[in-house]
From TrEMBL:
Region (Disordered): 370-401
Ranges annotated as biased composition (Pro residues): 391-401
Classification via Pfam families: DDE_5
Signal sequence residues: none
Name of the protein described by the UniProt record: Transposase IS701-like DDE domain-containing protein
Domain of life where this protein originates: Bacteria
Length: 401
């Protein structure tokens, strides 16, 4: 029988106590009531179905009127809270780097036609893609640090609402930039550390996100649509044709749906996993999209950039739910990856699903979307306040820092 050393228990308790103090300092208006409401939220027996039920818990020492006053008039210093969250010990991947996931979840409000700033939110159907719907609601963009090992917990670092006037890519890039700057400012990333890996799903244009995040110590990893067409690098050395002319910017086409255009991969790996069977990955270096002055690049006035990266194709034997596995295409802004680097990227992408479990937890257990709010502003104090409490991460020794 193994016992936890008492010193470790004291350190974990001290870390949780310091976080509670820092969190209380972020509550600038109605702080006492908001703090009690957070305690009641985390200590309630069973899922939270309505805010007024929290006033019946032992941790809530005020009446229900004070609870509504705190929700309506309270305020959270979100920039300060974001720095507090960035200063907590962050989980790391196998090679010691930070891995962040970005995704959007929705606060659906289909029966609130007078509520402002609602957007059409994509909702997946239960019987396949043919039953997908677009429901009115408020979309929220989350950034979280992914854990490693046999756990699905992740640490939320920021949450912001996307408005009707926001460009999703630019708003997300600004959000990620702010989080990375907070991590650097709080000492969680230092010179000499590996680049922070930012994982996106197929709803984001990974090459454009890499362009928007240029100048930061980050690497972008995103899933690509299976019908994409990208370009290979120009062969080196370039042999000029007899008629002359400048060298081309793009090489031959790389069509995802046509294997004859792929060529030999620059790296290939085979891994045996418990959940997916044999996982086979192939990677091609310096693959890039051919950009045109349309869509997202229509306002680009200078020469269009060539955004090179590593293209990864992942294929597995089976899926946990029994569905037929389809190949997954990933694009990383890093180039020159080895076989081990390729495996680390697709394994990090698979951990992105942990953020989906977090969305389910804050909605179904913490009751984030239970209140029937009139305006999206009222949902702000709940965004970051509720998640950190149930999973205080104990301090971890820094590796090589």
């Amino acid at each position: 029988m193994s016992l936890l050393h008492p010193g470790v228990q004291r350190e974990a308790f001290a870390a949780a106590s310091h976080f509670r103090d820092d969190f209380f300092d972020c509550l600038t208006v109605r702080g006492d009531m908001l703090f009690e409401l957070t305690d009641a939220l985390l200590c309630a027996d069973g899922p939270v179905t309505t805010p007024v039920d929290l006033t019946l818990t032992a941790e809530h020492r005020r009446g229900h009127g004070a609870m509504y006053d705190a929700l309506n008039c309270g305020n959270v210093d979100v920039p300060r809270l974001r720095q507090v969250l960035a200063g907590l010990p962050q989980p790391e991947a196998a090679d010691g780097r930070l891995v962040l996931a970005v995704d959007v979840t929705h606060w659906l409000r289909p029966d609130a036609p007078t509520s402002p700033d609602r957007l059409f939110c994509h909702v997946y159907g239960r019987s396949g893609r043919s039953s997908d719907q677009f429901v009115s609601g408020w979309p929220y963009s989350f950034v979280a640090a992914l854990e490693s090992g046999r756990t699905s917990w992740c640490q939320i670092l920021d949450a912001r609402r996307l408005g009707p006037a926001d460009d999703v890519a630019e708003a997300t890039a600004a959000q990620v930039r702010r989080v990375v700057e907070d991590l650097i400012g709080m000492g969680r990333w230092q010179q000499g550390d590996r680049d922070i890996l930012i994982v996106f799903d197929a709803g984001y244009d990974a090459p454009r996100m890499a362009y928007l995040l240029e100048g930061l110590p980050v690497e972008v990893l995103g899933r690509m649509r299976t019908d994409r067409v990208m370009r290979k690098p120009v062969p080196v050395p370039w042999i000029s044709p007899p008629q002359g002319g400048r060298p081309p910017k793009h090489g031959k086409e790389f069509r995802f749906a046509r294997p004859e255009t792929w060529g030999e991969p620059d790296a290939a790996t085979v891994q045996v996993t418990d959940r997916y069977g044999t996982a086979r990955a192939m990677a091609w270096d310096r693959i890039h999209p051919r950009l045109t002055t349309r869509s997202a690049w229509i306002d680009h006035t200078s020469e269009l950039p060539v955004i090179e990266g590593t293209l990864i194709r992942l294929e597995v034997d089976r899926l946990p739910g029994g569905h037929d596995p389809l190949p997954v295409w990933l694009w990383s802004s890093a180039t020159g990856l080895s076989g081990g680097g390729v495996d680390l990227r697709w394994q990090a992408f698979l951990r992105r699903i942990d953020l989906e479990h977090t969305f389910r937890m804050i909605k179904q257990t913490l009751g984030w979307t239970r209140p029937k709010l009139r305006t999206p502003r009222s949902s702000g104090p709940v965004d970051l306040a509720g998640h950190r409490g149930p999973h205080p991460t104990p301090p971890r020794p820094a590796t090589g820092r």
